[in-house]
Structure formats: C-alpha cells, structure tokens
Write a structure and sequence with these properties.
Elements lengths: L1 E5 L9 H4 L6 E5 L3 H5 L4 H15 L7 E4 L8 H11 L4 E5 L4 H13 L3 E5 L8 H8 L7 H12 L3 E2 L2 E2 L31 H13 L16 H14 L1 H4 L19 H6 L4 H13 L5 H25 L18 H4 L5 H13 L4 H15 L3 H11 L5 H12 L16 H7 L20 H12 L1 H4 L6 H8 L3 H18 L1
Parallel strand pairs: 1-2, 1-4, 2-3, 4-5
Antiparallel strand pairs: 6-7
Helix pairs in contact: 3-8, 4-5, 7-13, 12-13, 13-18, 15-16, 16-18, 16-20, 17-18, 20-23
The chain binds flavin-adenine dinucleotide and iron/sulfur cluster (SF4).
C-alpha cells in the first residue's frame, strides 16, 4: 500500500501530497505528534494544530483516509506505523520534510528496517528550498542572516527597484526601536473569532487527552481555517502594519500583542503562505499605505529570519540540539510555569504566554530569554519550555531561536554575540519597571533589579570566553571600570538569588 503521511503542521495547499492525492492508496492524517507526549504543551497549541488539521480534512477528497486522533496515552508514530504495516503491508511512504529531525530519523529507520520506500518532499510553507540555503551557505566562514535576506530579496525581486533596495537601503532596523513611551496612538482591539463545533470538539479531546497541560483554552482566538487565517492577515495589514515597524521592539503592560501580526502559527502549519503575506504587505508600500520601515521590517522577519533559521536548523542538526557553549546546568525556575515572580517583566511575559500561548519577539528574546541567559539556565530545559508553550513552536524554528539567538548556546552560529541585557534595556523599551517591586536604577542594593546584578555577574563569570569577542569589547571596557567590591557584591547577590528561585 502506498501511503501519504500528513502531520498537523503540513497543511500547505501547495504541498506535493495535497497536489497528488490520487496517487496514494491511503492518506494518513496523524494528530498525536510524539512531542505532545514528551514535553508539557500549552492546551491552545495542541487545540490549534489539531483543529486546523480536522478542518483541512474536509478539503481532502480521497476514498481512503485514516485519521489517527490524539488520545491520552498514544503509543507513538513508529508503533502506529508498525501496526499499520502488519494490518496491510506498506510499500511506500510519502511525506513532507517533517518539522523536527527526530521524526525524520524515526521514519528513515522504520522504512529501512522494513524495506519500505520513503519519499520526503520539499516543504512548500517556505519560500526557498533547503538546497537554496545549502548553495548560499556553501564555503561561507560565517552565516549572516542579513546577507541571506539580501540574496533572497534579489532572487525573488521583493522590495527592489531594479537592482537597488526599495527606500534606498536594505535594512531599516534602526527605525524599528521606538519605546512604548513614545506611543501616542490607540492600539486597535483585535477581532474575536467564533469557536465552531469542530474546534469545540477538539477542545474536549485536548482536555481529555492532556488534562494537566499548561495554560487554558479560555482565551482561544486562533484561526483554524485558511479563510480565517487570511482574515487575520488582512486585519493586521489594515489596523497594525502602519505602526508595526516603529514599535517592533517595544513592550507594554497595557497591550500584550501591540502591533505584531500574530501570523506565525498560520505560516508554520501551512494555513497561510509566506509569499502571500509578503506580496500583500509590499503592495501597501507600493500604494503608499504603509511606511518603508514597517514593510521592510515585516518582510525581513519572514524572508530573512524565518528562512535563515530554518536553513540553520537543517544544516546543524542533530548536533545542534545538544550544544551548551557556556556549559550551564541550572534548572528552570518554577515561575516559568506559574508566572509567580516579583519581577514584573517576567511575570508579564509568562502570564501572556499562559493566557494566549503567545508573547511577542522582544518578550521572548529580551525578557524570558535574557533571564535564562544571564541566570545560566540549562539550554535544553529552556528549549523544551519554549517548544511546549508557544502556539507557533516547532523544533525547526524554536531551537535556533532559543538555543542560538536567545542563549548563545551554539557559540555564535546564529548571532555574533550574546543578547545579554540589564534592566536598563527593559526599562527603556517598556513601561514595566514602575510597577515592579525591584528598583531598576540600582545594582547592588537590597531591592535592586535582578536583571541588573545578574547581567554584571554574567559578564564576570563568562569573561574568559567572551572578552576576546570583538563585539563585546565596549561592554568589557565598562566592566573594567568597576571595582572589586562591586564585582564581589554582584556575584554574591546573583548566587543567592539563583539559589532562592531554583
Ligand atoms: C527565544 C525565542 C523563541 C522563538 N520561538 C519561535 C517559535 O517557536 N516559532 C516561531 O515561529 N517563532 C519563534 N520565535 C521568533 C519570533 O519571536 C516569532 O516568530 C514571533 O514572535 C511570532 O509572532 P508574530 O507572528 O506576531 O511576529 P511578527 O513580529 O509579526 O513577525 C512576522 C513574522 O516573521 C516571522 N519571524 C519573526 N521573527 C522570526 C524569527 N526570529 N525566526 C523565525 N521567524 C520569525 C514569523 O513568522 C512572524 O509571524 C522565537 C524567538 C525567540 C527569541
Ligand atoms: S525592575 Fe527589573 S525585574 Fe523589574 S520590571 Fe524592570 S527590568 Fe524587570
């Protein structure tokens, strides 16, 4: 029997499998992803993925669909395939490049052991192919996202005027850093989507199969059909894109979502096509409806970062997952799960995560990620948390972002220096600190902001590794101006603080 195996994040209607359904004897829709059972997941993430798959099932016109649903203790993909093979021998499996390396490895093992043909097709929810990244990255000493982005802009003629970048420069990042304190406009309220019967049934299945999962389904407002995902993209373009660039790095206690697009879940499960989003946003620029810093900023995230991150994942796996550049071992503090901490910034980012299965990029990078970096949390534990709690998390994108960008645990493959920051950065970009029990303006007092003393402690404790990095020289110059008493106080305060929270 020739089977097509479809996972919940492989719903792109341009996928080889969707375009060739008639060539298979059976279509398998496989809901119970192994990682749902291996690490704690947010209920909304499971519900979103499963409901999207069940909605797309209606598009699949085939007489023989096997729908494997989530249950409380699923035996796993390989046991399932073994059973299927016993019921009716499988001759070939066609699937799209899976989202994580382990699934691909398991499928290879299963097919080789059972002499079954395995055909892994290109994943059409990306713009470039993996071979494009291979070609571009070949012979390069270091891989820099900005150059891959420029290469793709030229290749696909996006935001280009002949050979020149639109607006006269490639990157408007410097114009994307306004603090929330500079915001004068109201942030429009997001439209609510109705939960239909299919999604409601999925929610019941999620509660039954994963009763102890993280978060709740109460605020579920995610699109689960192609048409609703498109509506959400249009809502972003009409109400949020204009300010997207300016306040991309800002954080607010009054708005969790700010001007972000919230389309990552749909790009990552295939409900939306990345080029469709880019084309619509570019059109706004061409029609003078949106400024270049917003449009370029958005295009860079999707064409630059998203494509680059995926290339990194497949180039460096499976070793990448085990990297731990600073050899850190501290376990994840309990407040990553319950949000119970006096650090307002951490409390806010984690409560948003619990409520929406979402927090925006700067909260992920400069709050929860920064804390994990400067507190020396173990990268693999931190990665498991990010993979489980975010609606858009799949290993190909979560891992290079967390382990590489946020934790520098890859030693500089994704970024050229750690994104370590003190409370000063958080105070500049947000309105959090005035509601915090801690004092952001001091470092070694009794009530000093932990981000401050842990930041300095991070620099001191990693000095032998980081001082030689030329991009850290200014920072180490400021450390050189501190006296020994200061250094011993930040070290002592950090030690006590980390001991208390773990
Ligand atoms: C520690 C950490 C973990 C992350 N984990 C994930 C993850 O599991 N899944 C995920 O999709 N993104 C992840 N990101 C990247 C980014 O934070 C999210 O893509 C973004 O917050 C999604 O929200 P949005 O759609 O509103 O994004 P917007 O700000 O509106 O950006 C538009 C789109 O650009 C893409 N994008 C932006 N930044 C990145 C990036 N660094 N890598 C890949 N794509 C990007 C996304 O598809 C996003 O939808 C992570 C970032 C960090 C720092
Ligand atoms: S004072 Fe420090 S811990 Fe408190 S919100 Fe500001 S940065 Fe976060």
């Amino acid at each position: 029997m020739k089977i097509a195996l479809i996972f919940p994040d492989q719903l792109s209607n341009k996928s080889y499998l969707f375009l060739n359904l008639e060539s298979y004897d059976q279509i398998i829709l496989f809901e119970p992803l192994d990682n749902f059972y291996e690490i704690p997941h947010h209920k909304q993430k499971i519900a979103f993925l499963i409901s999207s798959l069940r909605h797309i099932k209606q598009e699949i016109n085939h007489p023989n669909i096997k729908h494997e649903k989530i249950i409380k203790d699923h035996p796993g993909l390989i046991k399932f395939l073994n059973n299927q093979n016993e019921i009716e021998p499988i001759t070939s499996i066609d699937t799209v490049q899976p989202s994580d390396h382990k699934i691909l490895r398991d499928l290879l093992f299963f097919s080789q052991t059972n002499s079954i043909e395995l055909n892994v097709h290109n994943d059409s929810k990306f713009i470039a192919k993996l071979e494009d990244f291979e070609y571009w990255s070949k012979d390069k000493k270091s891989l820099i996202q900005e150059f891959y982005y420029r290469w793709l802009r030229k290749k696909y003629n996006i935001l280009m005027n002949d050979n020149e970048p639109a607006g006269g420069q490639w990157n408007f990042d410097k114009e994307n850093r306004k603090s929330i304190k500079q915001l004068k406009d109201e942030i429009p309220k997001r439209n609510s989507l109705k939960t239909d019967k299919e999604t409601f049934d999925v929610m019941v299945d999620v509660e039954t199969s994963f009763p102890d999962a993280f978060g709740s389904l109460e605020n579920f407002n995610w699109a689960v059909t192609r048409s609703d995902a498109k509506l959400k993209l249009k809502e972003f373009i009409s109400s949020y894109l204009f300010n997207y660039g300016n306040f991309q790095d800002a954080m607010s206690k009054d708005s969790s979502l700010l001007f972000h697009s919230l389309i990552s879940p749909y790009l990552n499960n295939g409900l939306l096509c990345p080029m469709e989003a880019i084309d619509l946003v570019e059109l706004e620029y061409k029609n003078n409806q949106a400024p270049i810093n917003a449009v370029e900023g958005f295009v860079r995230q999707i064409l630059g970062w998203r494509e680059f991150i995926r290339g990194i994942y497949w180039k460096y796996m499976p070793q990448y997952k085990t990297l731990n550049f600073f050899d850190t071992k501290t376990k994840l503090p309990e407040f990553y799960w319950n949000a119970e901490t006096d650090m307002y910034c951490m409390h806010k980012a984690i409560s948003d995560t619990k409520e929406y299965a979402y927090s925006h990029h700067i909260q992920r990078l400069m709050v929860t990620g920064n804390f994990a970096l400067i507190a020396g949390l173990n990268p693999q534990k931190v990665c498991d948390w990010y993979l489980g709690v975010y609606i858009d998390a799949h290993e190909w994108v979560e891992l290079p972002n967390t382990l590489g960008m946020a934790l520098f645990a890859d030693g500089g493959i994704v970024g050229s220096k750690p994104y370590a920051a003190s409370g000063k950065y958080i105070n500049r970009m947000s309105n959090f600190c005035k509601d915090c029990k801690y004092d952001v303006n001091t470092i070694i007092e009794d009530d000093s902001c932990p981000m401050n003393f842990m930041y300095w402690n991070f620099l001191i404790s990693r000095e032998n590794i980081l001082r030689k990095n030329p991009r850290m020289s200014l920072i180490y110059n400021s450390l050189d101006k501190k006296d020994d008493l200061f250094k011993s106080k930040v070290q002592a305060k950090s030690k006590i603080f980390i001991k208390d929270i773990t």
